[in-house]
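In practice, a research group might receive sequence data for several interacting partners and want a quick structural hypothesis before committing to experiments. The following worked case mirrors that situation: the sequences arrive first, and a predicted assembly follows.
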Amino acid sequence: MIKKVVSVIVLALVIAACSSSDGGGSKPTDNFDRQTMLLNWADNIIIPVFQDLNAELSALVEAKNTFVTTANQTNLEALRSAWLNAYKVWQYAEMFNIGKAEAIYFSAYMNIYPASVTEIESNIANGSYDLNQSNNQDATGFPALDYLLYGVANDEATILDIYTTNTNAESYKTYLSDVVDHMKSLNESVLNDWTSSYRDIFVNSTGNTVTSATNKIVNDFIYYFEKGLRANKVGIPSGVFSSGVLYPEKVEGYHNQEISKELALAALKASQDFFNGKHYNGSTSDNSLSSYLDYLKTITGSEDLSALINSQMNAARTQLNTLDNNFANQINADNTKMTMTYDELQKVVVLLKLDMVQAMNISVDYVDADGD
Amino acid sequence: MKKFLSIAAVATVLLTSCSSDDDNEKNNINTPSTYSFLRNGESTVNFGGQTTRIAMATELVSALSVNTNTKASLQAMFNHAEGDQDFTHADLNASNKNVRSKVAASNDFFATNTTLSNTIKQDFDGWITDQADNVFPSWNVTASAGVAGNLQQLGSTTVRYFNAKGLELNQAVAKGLIGGLMADQMLNNYLSIGVLDAGSNVQNNDNDVVEEGKTYTTMEHKWDEAYGYLYGAEENPESPVLDADRFLNTYLRQVNDDDDFSGIADEVYEALKLGRAAIVAKNYKVRDAQVAVIRENISKVIAVRAVHYLQGAKSDLEATTIDYAHAFHELSEGFGFLYSLQFTRKPGTGMPYINNAQVNSYINTLLAGNGFWDVSVETLDTISAEIATAFGFTVEQAAN
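A structural hypothesis for the assembly, expressed as tokens:
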């Protein structure tokens, strides 16, 4: 009897050994210290980003208050510059769609573009609106301000008229004010959640399951790079997803007309800094995806993925730098340069979404629809 | 002691059988006699999208020969939008699929090369536009160097229509689609390891996890979609008889009819069947070996036909009385197959046998000056020889 049991066990072991050998050999154990990476992300990148965004949004609120009190060209310029400063910091924050940010659809209320002019105008005309209502996602945030500060009339003088002599001037000012306050309040709730409780949950979620902090952030990061940067900023306006039909009006900062490149470059820098674990606004770096890949390289002898990814991100930056400051102009003049930029960004996506996650044994939690 | 020995013996036997060779691995694969695969008694084979696109391409190519069509109507057939009344078949009009979006759109070749993909799509747009703008208005003009119009074949009632360079544009589109749509989607997309193994496909296939509401796993379906680009127009695709469309399917038959390449059609069919059966048996090594067989042979079909037509044109041009209508027809078919070479796939590499830059240089040579009116037989021989060498056959084998 015992003999039978033993041989059955042996049999089972042998069969198990057999079937696993199909998978291409056993991998060395991954003992990378995920917690030091999570600590670096939380304390040196994510929380400082939301704090800086909070400071910039406070400045935006102040500039807005000044403009609402005294609507003149000087105060309009100051308000615009506060908007741009905050918008640039936003490029660092958008990827951290986790915790409170994920729960309240933070990024959807902050940066869905193009903003809907129809909805904004109708909100202003009606005077009754709930900016937390999902229908208003494209009537709030940075893109709504892009319209209100640059696109609400055809020239500078007339834009100011909207807030001064226009019969609806008060309604415009109220809406402008509400949108800015709404953005500030959303960011406060995300930041407060991080500093009060979420930070500890995050840094202690060291496992490798689909809901672990590393796995979620890696997915957020790739998703941001693929959708927020590659698709939204470059691919959609240049017709990659519309059989070549061009949508210059869908570039980020369309009404401003000169910042779509600046914002895309900021987003690329934010992505690369995060990948390399560079402290926000600092010069030192600690554990992040690049050091994780370097560690995996030493235990598996695989290729130097972190170098490949950095060099491909640099190639994407070189291509981005060839574009007009206003992507809408670039699309109208020579869209090929846009799609060439898209292609360089897509090469980064392939490295991140296939090679990197495979090395880290992390599964991608979202899929693209294929057509057929 | 005896016990350990017997365990050791059993283990040794099992381990030996475990490190199986290819034959043993094939043995656990149940390859059916026809391309029929069932799960719980229901078919798991589905490639409706491919059948639809072949049908759309067929109508488009026919429409290019009807001079009352407009540029807009032709473009709409190429780049159909769901619900638009672009085709004679209601099913096609209702479909949300179209041809253009799948031209030069494979995962392996174009996922990070949208710029080239756009250029290639624009080549097709350009041929369609040229037909509507320049050839249709010259329908009754006699073609000559630099002048679009018609030419009648010698001793025949067949009239052909050429652009100013002697190119028959419906041939450029039809033969270009064999590579740009069919071969590219088949070899570089649906048979791509990146597509077959994308996401959780392997895990799901290993555990027989089927797509929601479907009978097939995603990996099975991807393979079937590759099958569909070759056999999707067959009346009974399970047992293909070939000559079912005017694209890849028909030219596989034509190459197979050449004694130098006979058996190629069977080889492709068997590899598609075995690869699909290997997916059912979760044997990815055998599957991947079949991918290589299919890539090599389908690529070869395109190359053989390119050389065949260039050589056909050469003999026309060398005749005492030159039949320009026939020569340019051959050249136009050859042009389309030549264009398609950039979508072939050399097994074991991520590259075509002949790349886009090389193809463009051939095409620019053929279209230089007054195009086919100026082309020399030396040029045709040079290009033919280069293609034949790249694919490992001889010009003579392809020419007859």
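Before designing any experiment, note the following. The domain at 29-206 of chain A is CATH 1.20.1420.20 (A middle domain of Talin 1). Chain A has two domains: 29-206, 209-372.
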